[in-house]
Design brief:
Layout: H1 15-38, H2 45-71, H3 111-133, H4 139-165, H5 176-183
Length: 203
């Protein structure tokens, strides 16, 4: 048995962590490759700007993750913070739209579908980074992954806002009565809970 202080930096990884990191890094490559393919079909300059800015950010994050995974040491630069350009305005309500169906040809690929694919990729990567970061043994890798999660949340939210603005992602609301009932269905607890004594039900 050894502890982490007895290992060289590049070996300071658990077996489970190594497999998870391979999945994370391969996932980043997958996102980058798909963004590159999407670029051939994007028509809207606004969506192209989102795609290019996110691609650049993810590529930097990929390089940073590779570096500290290989060395096990502090990376040469800190994790950056992704800044979206969208404002936080959400349009509520539903309006009629054409029913969705699979594309019948390559000509059917539109910004609506592309932005949906982008959102799905970023959401799944955010989930993978979160699940992986809680079980990483190397403290540098753990911090790099954990610090990446808010950035992927921000990127996903940017795509959601873009979709919402263009009515690709519509947001229904409950009636005022139902909303009031739902938002008031929990209240803070006052006072201190009466915690049981340790072992009081032990046989």
């Amino acid at each position: 048995m050894m502890n982490s202080n007895q290992l060289p930096s590049q070996m300071n990884h658990g077996g489970h962590e190594v497999f998870d990191l391979h999945e994370v890094i391969a996932g980043m490559i997958n996102v980058l490759d798909q963004y590159m393919m999407f670029r051939m079909f994007v028509r809207d300059p606004e969506l192209m700007d989102i795609l290019d800015r996110q691609y650049s950010f993810i590529l930097d994050q990929y390089n940073l993750t590779c570096e500290c995974f290989t060395t096990g040491r502090e990376p040469s630069q800190h994790t950056k913070r992704y800044m979206m350009k969208q404002n936080n305005t959400v349009v509520y309500g539903m309006k009629p739209s054409q029913p969705k169906k699979p594309n019948q040809s390559i000509e059917d690929i539109k910004d609506k579908g592309l932005s949906g694919h982008m959102l799905g990729l970023i959401k799944s990567t955010a989930s993978l980074l979160t699940m992986t970061s809680v079980e990483v043994t190397n403290p540098v890798i753990r911090r790099v992954l954990a610090d990446s999660v808010p950035n992927y949340v921000e990127m996903a939210y940017e795509i959601f806002l873009y979709q919402n603005k263009h009515s690709y992602y519509q947001v229904p609301q409950l009636s005022a009565h139902d909303m009031n009932l739902m938002t008031n269905s929990y209240v803070p607890m006052n006072g201190q809970p009466q915690m049981p004594n340790p072992g009081m039900f032990r046989n």
